[in-house]
Design brief:
This protein has helices spanning 3-23, 27-38, 44-53, 60-86, 88-96, 113-127, 141-144, 193-202, 243-258, 299-304, 321-329, 342-345; strands at residues 131-132, 138-140, 186-188, 207-216, 228-238, 263-271, 274-283, 288-297, 313-320. It is an alpha+beta fold. It folds into 2 domains: 3-94, no CATH class; 113-345, BirA Bifunctional Protein, domain 2 (2-Layer Sandwich). The structure holds phenylalanine.
Length: 348
């Protein structure tokens, strides 16, 4: 028998076997097919094996090898069919899959409106050349008050107006006097102006930073107050900085944040750490809203951080992030921002 003929017969059998195994529907059909193809006595493969004896001696090694490979192919096809019948689920699921059905949309969370606001404020001031600085929420009296020119008798230091912390081992010093004297020297910061001090202590002028973060005051919560809220603090120190620079920066900021039609208004005010000081109002759609305070950095503040007030001037401002956020999104009660009610939050 010619070698070619023998090899072709083996290949034909392997292909037919693969097709048959792939289409068997149950275990008894599978077993019948196995006996028909691989049966030790009368199986078709066994039948072909007889042809091997008639192949020329020189071709025997190749013919034998091909015979063994064919046997393996048929056994593999059998094993695959057996596996398919044992776990029909996989095949079933595959056939039920409808690629034309619309998919299930994964539920994605999104950023809290305050976080969105903070990111946008950072972006806008970043474009105006302000670097972002950070400071701790637990502060000492030096950074929250003293270096900001707020002396011990100032009402802003009243324990009833601040969240002082109970510091273990702190001995009250009645000699120091003032409302803050008999309480711990640590408190939750009541303003982000603390960061002005921290930055100037560590960097020589010029300085151009914004700082955004939480501040704490024991206010009763209502539509416009909350005991924790966020401020954006700005500080620019250089030579020859003027009030006009302050107003320009704030107006450019407002226009970028709320739209072109926004106006900025200054009203005379007082802060211990700025002189002169102003309240900053912004007009947008339905009227004027107070957004925070600002002014020219007081020379005493420069002295407290080791700057020379004869060499540098600067401005600072502090605006309420909740107010900016509420304006932007049309929120009327800031308490809603902190209730964590997804139905409210997912609107923004
Ligand atoms: N720290 C002030 C406040 O919390 C705001 C302010 C900041 C005013 C910077 C002037 C300059 O009310």
């Amino acid at each position: 028998m010619a070698l070619d003929e023998f090899l072709a017969e083996l290949d034909q059998l392997a292909e037919a076997a693969a097709a048959s195994f792939a289409s068997v529907g149950d275990a008894s059909e599978l077993e019948a097919l196995r006996v028909k193809l691989l049966g030790a006595k009368n199986g078709q493969l066994k039948g072909l094996q007889k042809g091997l004896a008639r192949v020329a001696a020189a071709d025997k090694p190749q013919a034998g090898k091909h015979f063994n490979q064919t046997k393996q192919r048929i056994e593999d096809a059998f094993a695959l069919a057996e596996q398919r019948l044992e776990s029909p689920g996989t095949d079933q699921a595959a056939s039920d899959f409808d690629a034309t059905e619309p998919g299930l949309r994964p539920r994605l969370g999104h950023l809290h409106p305050i976080t969105q606001t903070i990111q946008e404020l950072k972006d806008i001031f970043g474009r105006l050349g302000f670097r972002v600085a950070e400071g701790p929420e637990i502060e000492d009296e030096r950074h929250n008050f003293e270096a900001l020119n707020i002396d011990p008798s100032h009402p802003a230091r009243d324990p009833l107006d601040n969240f002082y912390l109970h510091a273990a081992g702190y001995a009250a010093d009645p000699e120091a006097g003032g409302p803050g004297a008999d309480v711990s020297p640590w408190l939750l910061r009541s303003q982000t102006s603390t960061v002005q001090i921290r930055v100037m202590e560590n960097t020589p002028p010029p300085v151009r930073i914004v700082s955004l973060g939480r501040v704490y005051r024991p206010d009763t919560a209502d539509a416009t107050h909350y005991p924790m809220f966020h401020q954006i603090e700005g500080l620019l120190v250089d030579t020859d900085v003027t009030m006009a620079d302050l107003k320009t920066i704030l107006r450019v900021f407002c226009s970028s944040y709320l739209g072109e039609e926004v106006e900025v208004r200054f009203r005379p005010s007082f802060f211990p750490f700025t002189e002169p000081s102003v309240e900053v109002d912004m007009q947008w759609q339905d009227g004027w809203v107070e957004m925070g305070g600002a002014g020219m950095v007081d020379p005493n503040v420069f002295r407290a951080v080791g700057y020379d007030p004869d060499q540098v001037t600067g401005f600072a401002f502090g605006l309420g992030v909740e107010r900016l956020c509420a304006r932007r999104f049309g929120i009327t009660d800031i308490r809603d921002l902190f209730k964590n009610d997804v139905r409210f939050l997912q609107q923004f």
